[in-house]
Design a protein that fits this description.
The chain is built from six helices and four strands, in the order H-H-E-H-H-E-H-H-E-E. By secondary structure, the chain is of the alpha+beta class.
């Protein structure tokens, strides 16, 4: 598990530094520490919405398909995960509840007040989840995931 899976690095140097800190034995405390960073950036996870199968194409899941297809399907999934067990790529949004400070910042970005933004039915903060399902011993497991910022491509 790499810090890049929780908050993507903004440049190649930072990405490589994060990858060098990847861990294979993940204790609950380590996962929760990474999740604190996600919550600080996006808000407290609230619910899953729009979860769907993005791809089951073996080419895209192997990283050997068209570049854009593979990027959306597997993102930064390590090459160490065997391609022959990759079964599906899922995408969805995780809605969040913003802290008062995060709501204030969002309101500033939207040029409104926190109260008005809270009433706006179109304002729904979230981050994107990408998960790759692997088949091992006849069962599907999440073998890799990434949390990504909201995008107009969602």
């Amino acid at each position: 598990m790499s810090p890049n899976q929780f908050l993507p690095a903004e440049d190649d140097k930072r990405f490589e530094e994060n990858e060098s800190r990847a861990v294979t034995e993940v204790a609950e405390e380590v996962f929760l520490k990474f999740m604190e960073q996600v919550e600080d950036k996006y808000g407290i996870p609230d619910s899953i919405r729009n979860l769907h199968v993005h791809s089951t194409d073996p080419q895209a899941l192997s990283g050997q398909g068209e570049l854009l297809d593979s990027m959306f399907a597997i993102g930064g999934m390590p090459k160490s995960i065997p391609t022959d067990i990759r079964r599906a790529s899922l995408r969805g949004q995780i809605t969040t509840k913003l802290t008062p400070e995060q709501l204030k910042k969002a309101a500033e970005d939207y040029r409104t007040t926190p109260e008005e933004l809270s009433k706006d039915p179109d304002f729904l903060p979230y981050f994107t989840l990408k998960a790759i399902l692997l088949e091992e011993e006849g069962a599907l497991h999440v073998g890799y995931f990434e949390f990504l910022p909201p995008s107009m491509l969602d």
